[in-house]
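Exercise: predict the fold of this chain.
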Amino acid sequence: MDTVEIKTIVDCRLVVESLLGQPQQRSGRAWQWNCPFHEDHATPSFTVYPNGYYCFGCGASGDQISLVMALEQIGFVDAVEYLAGQTQVDQPRQPNRQQRADGQAMWREPGWQKGAHRIVAGGIQRMPGSPGAEYLAGRGITLETCQAFALGYTPHVQIWVKQGLKWVPADDLGAAIIIPWQARGVVQAVQYRLIEHSMRRFHQKYGGERALFGVDQLAQRDVLVVVEGELNAVSIWQAAGNLVDVVSFGPESNIEKAAPAIR
């Protein structure tokens, strides 16, 4: 889920409610709290709408992302990852945190890894009946095989760049198959196989630990097949998975990193 989707799907009022508790007042689309950014003990001036907030006392304003960054004192990426997990807007979730000895919040996983897991989970939900499923079916890959490798689908691979203090959309690479590289069930990296893009085929989103793709499906069989391209490995696994083990080193440029793991 990209930031545009977050701002469309995640209700800012419910995010504030999950972090600050019940509002002091509700007036149609606007809900009010005592402002968390200044002394606000009289009539609540912190007003929150479905897609943003504004304080009539101190002038603080922003969207869902800047709000979580300010209230939780976390960075842009962690705030986006937290909001991406709130796809069930009627059941907002608390950030996945634990307390350090000094009382400050600490994330249990590296930020990119949380984001990678959420991208994979959301992509799996979107796969049935999607253009991604049609594309894979055209290659003879079944939905059951997609589930085994946690393949997913996204309609937009959004590229963001930082301009000053803000992140802005730079390019939309279009629809893609989500290909997670996993080891022991942990997502190490996320690769996108672009479906409609005319100039490029792949884009890597998170992580850099791409040694071998398909290691979680290894069963210590007598024959190990090593191929280039993740979807090639998926196809061979589906056709002959009961006879051989199959792994992929992904792009040709990754073969040097993969070679020690293969040995």
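Check your answer against the key: The first strand starts at residue 25 and ends at 27.
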